[in-house]
Design the sequence.
């Protein structure tokens, strides 16, 4: 009853003449309010790793102003923080935005979710898997497809699973036999032959889905070896906590390859650059596992990360100095070929 009286009082305080007098200003403020709140809510949802469907619903449902704004504006006017000339348009903006809530929900349900969400895609039934291999690859996108093609080129057959129906249909048109389905489901992994398979490669790009697949596989197939892709350090920590020893950060190899090429272009011999990369990788992988144990203590994690950055720089510097002392000037195969070609052209 009191809540009803509150909204009646709020409705009575709205200056509809003000809305009619300057509809353009009110419309612009309403749009600005909804867009700003939507962006803040959507980013917040991404930070807490909400699924796309839930994140869109979360942002659209709360993008309008709230009733607490009426209390704040009334309090601000009574205490002469803002004049009524400012408060009245703001009250009207909040009220109009609240009235648009049903429209926002319809826009999300009818326009946004079918195009950008995953609800419609998930409604498709999983394929019947009619083949089993000793290797299962979950996720056949940028990473999974490269791994799969490499294995196939070396005579290793794998069973491919992907949860994106559009990607599955496209790959089938290209002649690849990819099965649609959610690899975090026990029945689907069983149908793919996880009970007899030797290796599960998790190459999906969603950290939450990766963990779900890993947990399902470890629960039902404890003897199945698992290799998992991670997006960054935080996801790597989660996978290490889940008991996965073979964790592959998706950007590490390309970054180190670029770093090695940079050293080579700056005058380092190819084998020196590659040895520096191997040293860096070895220590970086060790530090990753050490820092994973500190992840729940933010202060210890920051201290540990800073200390390991300093340690790594010292180790790399020491190795560089040792290489110089031993006059490491041997040619690697690539440099040898390049130099031999120059000699041939000169002669």
Sequence:
């Amino acid at each position: 009853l009191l809540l009803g009286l509150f909204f009646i009082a709020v409705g009575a305080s709205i200056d509809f003449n003000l809305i009619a007098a300057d509809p353009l200003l009110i419309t612009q403020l309403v749009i600005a309010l909804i867009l700003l709140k939507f962006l803040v809510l959507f980013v917040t949802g991404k930070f807490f790793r909400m699924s796309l469907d839930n994140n869109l619903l979360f942002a659209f449902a709360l993008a309008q102003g709230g009733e607490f704004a009426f209390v704040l504006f009334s309090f601000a006017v009574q205490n002469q923080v803002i004049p009524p000339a400012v408060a009245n348009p703001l009250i009207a903006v909040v009220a109009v935005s609240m009235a648009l809530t049903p429209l926002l929900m319809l826009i999300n349900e009818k326009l946004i979710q079918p195009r950008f969400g995953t609800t419609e895609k998930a409604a498709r039934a999983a394929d019947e898997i009619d083949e089993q291999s000793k290797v299962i690859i979950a996720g056949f996108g940028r990473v999974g497809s490269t791994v799969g093609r490499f294995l196939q080129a070396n005579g290793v057959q794998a069973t491919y699973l992907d949860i994106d129906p559009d990607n599955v249909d496209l790959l089938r048109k290209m002649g690849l036999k990819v099965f649609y389905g959610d690899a975090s489901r026990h029945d689907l992994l069983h149908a793919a032959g996880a009970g007899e398979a030797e290796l599960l490669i998790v190459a999906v790009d969603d950290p939450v889905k990766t963990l779900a697949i890993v947990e399902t596989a470890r629960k039902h197939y404890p003897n199945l070896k698992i290799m998992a892709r991670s997006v960054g350090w935080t996801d790597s920590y989660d996978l290490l906590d889940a008991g996965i020893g073979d964790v592959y950060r998706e950007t590490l190899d390309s970054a180190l390859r670029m770093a090695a090429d940079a050293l080579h272009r700056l005058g380092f011999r190819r084998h020196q650059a590659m040895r520096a990369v191997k040293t860096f990788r070895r220590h970086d992988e060790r530090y990753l596992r050490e820092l994973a144990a500190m992840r729940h203590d933010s202060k210890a994690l920051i201290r540990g990360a800073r200390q390991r950055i300093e340690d790594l720089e010292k180790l790399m510097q020491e190795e560089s100095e040792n290489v110089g002392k031993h006059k490491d000037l041997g040619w690697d195969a690539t440099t040898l070929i390049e130099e031999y070609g120059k000699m041939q052209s000169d002669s």
